[in-house]
Amino acid sequence: MGAAQTAPATMPAPTQTIAGIVSTNPDFSTLLAAVKAAGLVETLSGAGPFTVFAPTNAAFAKIPKADLDALLNDKDKLKAVLLYHVVAGKVMAADVVKMTTGKTVNGASVNVKVDGSTVMINDATVTKADVPATNGVIHIIDTVLMPPANAMASTAMPATMAEPTETITGIVSTTPEFSTLLAAVKAADLEATLLGKGPFTLFAPTNAAFAKIPKADLDALLADPAKLKAVLLYHVVAGEVMAADVMKLTTAGTANGGNVSVKVVGGKVMINTATVTGTDMKAINGVVHTIDTVLMPPAK
């Protein structure tokens, strides 16, 4: 995120959950007290993955003491505020900067703005990005995010923590970073397929992944339903293959009929030439993993 610090690509795999990081970092002692008061320690220790915009002690100190004390003593309101700092899925800095909004598990959305090397989440500045956890990622912010008044009562658990409520088609259609993928799915007439019983696994390219394809080539692909369908089905694997299982594979058969190669390089999982950037977005009929490059099947 520009000037914000990012974790080195070669750093070892994380060993702590998000709750663990919050509980052992002195800069998060107020956040830890808030998480405990809201009864969210178990949630932030869960499987995830999810993304937390974590306010420091200095961020909480910007709130007048009387207001902060009142917030810490109102469990429902506090829970709603804290869940406004959580986004479902593992959204790394490289993906955050391409967004304009992000839907939180509170139900309300935050605004994302990039100004030079500065990334803003509402009126908070990201001061450090990509702090890795075993169940997601933390981005550190300098201001506490306050949800709109009509979202203050929301205390729902993150979708990734509870039973999924959306199909794979539903996830694709409601995630801003999948808008090009959604257009492709519609053009290839695959909406009904991804609504089907499954289960299956979708390696979902982001808008940025599609943007790597020259515009003329992408336009031609979107205008050729048969070829587009073949390409999209090359992103689908039968069964619900969670991230922990993907890492054990060397190849996987796709619904296209061809195989993709799977390898782990420097702690990152590669599907052919694509890097997996987000994992284990659970759906009613399977699971979605986010990738940064569109997979192109071999010519037959």
Q: Judging from the principal axes of the Cα atoms, what is the shape?
A: elongated
User: Can you give the helix content as a percent range?
Assistant: 25-40%
Low-pLDDT ranges = 1-11, 153-162
How many extended strands?
A: 14
Strand content: 25-35%
Mean pLDDT: 84
Assembly context of the chains: single chain
CATH H level, superfamily name of the largest domain? FAS1 domain
How do the helices and strands follow one another from N- to C-terminus?
HHEHHHEHEEEEEHHHEHHHEHEEEEE
**What summary fits the major beta sheet?**
7 strands, mixed
Which CATH architecture of the largest domain would you pick?
A: Roll
Structural class: alpha+beta
Question: What can you tell me about this protein's structure?
Answer:
By secondary structure, the chain is α+β, with helices and mostly antiparallel strands. It has two domains: 18-151, FAS1 domain (Roll); 168-291, Roll (FAS1 domain), CATH 2.30.180.10. It has helices at residues 18-24, 29-37, 57-61, 65-72, 75-83, 93-96, 168-174, 179-187, 191-195, 207-211, 215-222, 225-233, 243-246; strands at residues 50-55, 86-88, 101-103, 109-115, 118-121, 124-133, 136-141, 200-205, 236-238, 251-253, 259-265, 268-271, 274-283, 286-291. The strands form two sheets. The chain has a seven-stranded mixed beta sheet. A hairpin with a 2-residue loop joins strand 12 and strand 13 (274-283). The radius of gyration is 20 Å and the shape is elongated. This is Fasciclin domain-containing protein. Residues 15-145, 165-295 form the FAS1 domain.
